[in-house]
Design brief:
Blueprint: E1 6-12, H1 16-30, E2 34-38, H2 49-54, E3 58-62, E4 70-74, E5 79-83, E6 98-103, E7 106-112, H3 122-141, E8 149-153, H4 177-187, E9 191-193, H5 194-198, H6 215-218, E10 225-230, H7 231-234, E11 237-242, E12 258-262
Parallel strand pairs: 1-2, 7-8
Antiparallel strand pairs: 1-12, 2-4, 3-4, 5-6, 6-7, 8-10, 9-10, 11-12
Helix pairs in contact: 3-4
Length: about 270
């Protein structure tokens, strides 16, 4: 991998305080410019901001106790930082799931999409509506003809190739036809799934459930962590890759890092 590429990663940390050392060491090792983190599980007052800054990075974040939470850790100071859907005080509840920032001139939307609990639960309808609200956000603020990255834990495996047992799990909230259709409506706004652009037939996952015995070794997983970009970024994307080795670290997250590399030019 070339060192002069702009590298953006997404990572569901499943607790930023538990895995901060892993994240910072990994950023140094891979010379990554930006890591978008989900499921930080920390209130803003408890977020390890100083440790990140002492390591030489910038960070912006929103969180809450025990679940959700998003952050963007970057080498360059982020600009135009926004939280949530940017509409009303009533929607501040969405701030721990959505953060946007511009880094090196590239707008990035980092999302932790609601999981949905079960297809018959109100939370599943919230998940579907969340995608619709996100599509509206993109409509109001961006153009598919301009650079934009949408990254994060989408809590949806888009295609059968993205899940280890699509027949048995066809109605799971992360593979349910309605969830996939909701995701597709956002993709149709103007996004390219950059992993599939470079690896159209590759079976590779980003999440392996702790509760499944030897899930990583048996490759019983899901591809729910994504980096999608508009066409201008798809045209300059060099590769997208999944770091399965990081999932083997001591006390790992149940997800791992996904990295996109871009040749932005001078």
């Amino acid at each position: 991998m070339k060192d002069d590429l702009f590298k953006v990663a997404t990572f569901n940390a499943n607790s930023i305080r538990v895995r901060l050392g892993q994240i910072l060491a990994w950023m140094d090792k891979e010379s990554v410019d930006v890591v978008c983190v989900q499921e930080t599980k920390a209130r803003d007052a408890d977020f390890p901001q100083e440790a990140i800054q002492e390591a030489g990075y910038h960070v912006v974040f929103r969180g809450q106790k025990s679940y959700s939470g998003v952050a963007v850790i970057s080498r360059e100071e982020p600009q135009d930082v926004r939280y949530g859907f940017d509409q009303s005080d009533e929607e501040k509840r969405d701030e721990p799931r959505l953060i946007r920032a511009t880094i090196q001139g590239i707008p990035i939307a980092n999302t932790y999409v609601p999981q949905g609990r079960s297809p018959d639960a109100p939370e599943f309808q919230d998940k579907l509506e969340w995608f619709d609200r996100l599509r509206d956000l993109f409509d109001r603020n961006y153009s598919p003809d301009e650079p934009l990255l949408w990254v994060g834990d989408f809590n949806v495996a888009p295609e059968p190739i993205d899940i280890h047992d699509p027949d048995r799990l066809k109605n799971h909230v992360d593979f349910h036809p309605e969830a996939r259709a909701a995701l597709e409506r956002v993709r149709a706004w103007g996004f390219v799934d950059l992993f599939r652009l470079h690896h159209p037939d590759k079976v590779q996952y980003t999440y392996w459930d702790y509760r499944t015995r030897n899930a990583l070794e048996r490759n019983i997983g899901w591809r729910v962590d994504h980096i999608w970009g508009t066409e201008p970024l798809a045209e300059v994307s060099e590769d997208v890759w999944v770091d399965e080795e990081a999932r083997k670290a001591e006390r790992p997250s149940d997800h791992t890092f996904v990295v996109a590399e871009f040749a932005l030019g001078e």
